[in-house]
Request: fold
Amino acid sequence: MKKNLRFILALFISKAAMWLQKLLGMNASYFPGKLAIKLCPDFLGRIDKPKTIITVTGTNGKTTCCNLLLDVLTDNGYEILNNRAGSNTDAGIASALIAESTLSGKVKKQYAVFEVDERSSQRIYKYVHPDFAVCTNLFRDSIQRNAHPEFIFSFIDSALPDDTHMILNAEDPISSRLKTNNKRTYFSISRLPSDRTECVNIINDMRVCPCCGGKLEYDFVRYHHIGRMHCPDCGFASPKPDYEAAPDYEAKTFTVHTKNGDETYPLINDSVFNTYNQVTVVAVLREIGLSAKMISDSFAHMSIVKSRYTNIVKNGVEVVTNMTKGQNPVACSIVFDYIRSESGVKEVIVMLDDLTFKKTTEIVTWVYDADFEFLNDESIKRIVVCGVRMHDYHLRLLLAGVPEEKIRCVEFETDAPAQLELTGTDKVFILHDLTTPKLTKQVRDGILARLEEGVSEQ
Reply:
């Protein structure tokens, strides 16, 4: 699309709005992009784009993957345009392009990494043509936004260009079928000792073959519908991976099997979910031309973003904050299962918020889709539930079989540290949302203060 007077006017006004925000000390946001699209509806189509564009979408893991991609590329000297400071909608991407363009709309950088909200796909891919499109996975998400994963699949599949190179999860039978005629690269994780032959989760959205409707047989299942499967009736099966990670959690490394040989990388985190994030990033970066050494050297000094995961050891007790995504049953279930599998005696604080567009929602169906049963484990001796949904979490834990004496309810999250036993505890997990960073830090600091002072019996 050519630049017209309406576009130039929208660009000038949105740049002025961005400058004013900075002058007032306001955080970067999607507002300038929203303003530009309001003034010029096809603004994204008219503004110049970087030469190479990578987009990342999916239900879970897209933010971590984007952060890792940006960090590795920046570490290796690439100048990357991205929407990390704004949002993953069309307005957020417009803001990122506005920030890195001249007054004539000419882009300043040659590479871009954009996180894309699944529901925004049709508004974004209409104008932004990715060279590489990553989909981490597609799960059942918050019901008021994303309904069913097949519904979201249709949004993404119909919106993506036909010549975009797809980077897909071989072990997700939903997202791995995106854009079947496009060039595609698959990533996966090799079979693990913890894998099962039958799904133990409440949710499994791929029980039947998408081709013939027959019952799928799993070679192994990792969680929910993630695993390798085949249809004995029509031959549908998980695709062969191009990048297959074999993690060694004791050595804190993972080896990636490729057609050109094996490559070994440092593990940033010991959860399977973050191993998926890392092998996703390896697949993308290797496909765009980075060497295994460049990626490995960058991974060696990186960590998961602190807003999503931290751990501090105080007087022998490890205090972990873990972003868990309330209203997302799959994300919660993965974290619950991870906590259950961790060694030692544990206590858990559940402080998941209940906000949709800054308002409390009355939709609690997700609580009954999440596997709270994983918290019914002998190694977990106390669970503190907090906030406006504390009674819903309390009831769900009771239905999951957790003994009443293990549960404590507090309305205010900052009162949660006082409810922990701590004596004889090895690890404390604080499960929080991305919207509560200050509150999470207050809760963590309250626990650390108790540990610093010395723990007395409750």
